[in-house]
Structure formats: structure tokens, C-alpha cells
Amino acid sequence: MGADTTSTQLVFFISATLVAVAAAGTLTGIVHNLANTMSVRGAAVEAELTSSIEVVNDPRRVVTSPKALFYVKNTGQTTLDANETAVILDGRLVKTNNTLLNGARTFAPGALLLLEYTASAQNPPYAIGAGDHTLRVSMQNGAHDEFSFRTT
Amino acid sequence: MGFSVIAAHVILAIALLTAGGSLSGAYWDVTGDLEEARRIQHALVDDRLRTSLSVTGTPTWTLVVNIYSFEVRNDGATTLHPRDVDYFLDGRHHGDILLETVNGDPLTNLWLPGETLRVQLQNVNATPVLLRVVAGNGVAAQFPR
Description:
The complex is a heterodimer.
Chain A lengths: L2 H48 L2 E3 L12 E7 L10 E5 L2 E3 L2 E4 L11 E6 L13 E9 L4 E8 L1
Antiparallel strand pairs in A: 1-2, 2-6, 3-4, 3-7, 5-6, 7-8
Chain B lengths: L2 H47 L3 E10 L4 E8 L11 E4 L2 E2 L3 E6 L13 E6 L9 E4 L5 E4 L2
Antiparallel strand pairs in B: 1-2, 2-6, 3-4, 3-7, 5-6, 7-8
């Protein structure tokens, strides 16, 4: 076997190895990303499944003046972020001032969150008039509740 | 088959094994976590379905001391926790609790099925028309019904 043949085989060997390593690296990288995504998505779904909120206002009387007061209870098993709420009142996204009640520091299971809504410049100029209304509250992780009430 | 091909195959086989192990590990982890989450979700729903409360008797308001007293019975099959219970008077939350006792015990935080929670709220300035009691799991009782 001459030196030329050996060199050629060495070049082939190195090339084959490099290609194989590149392919293997790409494959493991993709699979690693896939596994990570699966874990993140799984954790998000897990958090959503174990989270639950409920608007616990007395539907017979909802205070709407001078501010509308809505009470949301954490009825799930995960601690939620009290400031990450999306409040939709009669189909309009509105801003609320959120306060934890009963001295709670976090929106833990069993805790009560007060949402105060005022029709103001910050909100769409939308006052809660007499009639039927629907409130939908969604938390950051997808836990949500809908509450229908009537004002006179 | 040349040595180059064998080396490439070995490298790819190792990569496939590593990737497969990583993927199956993540899959089983996620599956286990979701199974546990579904179990918790079912337990929460089951808990709500088996919970029932009722305001027994007629609440009383004492003018001089502004105390509003009432009793709530745990009619369901779940154990509740008095400290997670919230009270609403005429649509407003009232957290000024003077006394909460379960069957006469002011220290317990367990409210077992069949037991009665006696509550005294203070600083109630007028007789409320509507009372609503909400347990930690969101199940409520109200007076008048």
C-alpha cells in the first residue's frame, strides 16, 4: 500500500468522521431542544390543570358604585400572580386595581383577591349600567372563571 | 466495509442512543407530571361536588356592639378550613371576624362534615340584608336562600 493510498484513506476517514459528528451533533441538539420544549409545555399544562379560580361575589348584589368590586378566590392548588390578571367586562378588556385581602401576601390557594374597577380615563369610558353583565377573569397560566350578574 | 464507514456508524449510533434516551426521559417525566396534575384536578372537582354548606337559623345583629352572628353547617362530605372561609355582607367582603368556633372550639382549623361553624363579625354598622359564606374551595351558602 503506497503513501498515496494511505493518505487518501486517512482523508476519507477524517471526512466521514467529521460528517458523522456533525450529523450526530445536529440530531442530539434538535432532540435536546424538543425534550426541553416538551418539559416546558408539560409544566405549563400541569400548572393550568392544578390551578383554579372562582369569582365569589354575591350574585344577588354586586357593588358597582362608586367602584365595582369583584372578588376572586384561588380555589386551586397553585399560587398565582395577583397582578397578572386579564379582566374582561362585557367583552371589553378593562384595568383593575388588584388587592389581596385578609392580610395575604401571595395569591395562594384559599386566598381572596379584590379587583376594583372604575370607569376612568385609564379604562374605556365604560360604566356598569343597569342590566345583565358578564365578567371574565383569566390568570397568567390560563386559569379563568366567568361570572354573570345583573344590576338594577 | 471500510473503517471510515464503521466509525461513522458508531458515532451516529451513539448519538441516536443519547437522543432517544433524552427524549424518552422527558416524555416519561412529562407524562408522570400530567398524570399527577389530572389526579389533583379530579380531586379538586370531586371536593367541590361533595361540599355543601347552609346557613342555619336566622343571623342576628346586636345594635350596641355592632356584632353580626350566624351559624353555618357543613352539610357535605368534605373537611373544610374555617380560616379559608370568607364572608360577604350585602355584596361586600367583611373580614373583621370577632370569633369563629367549630362546635364550640375557637382554636381548630378543621370543620368536619356535620359540624357547625359559629361566626361573629364585628363592626357591622347595620343589619345586613344579604349574607354569603364562601368556603376555601369556592362553594357558597347564602342567607336568605
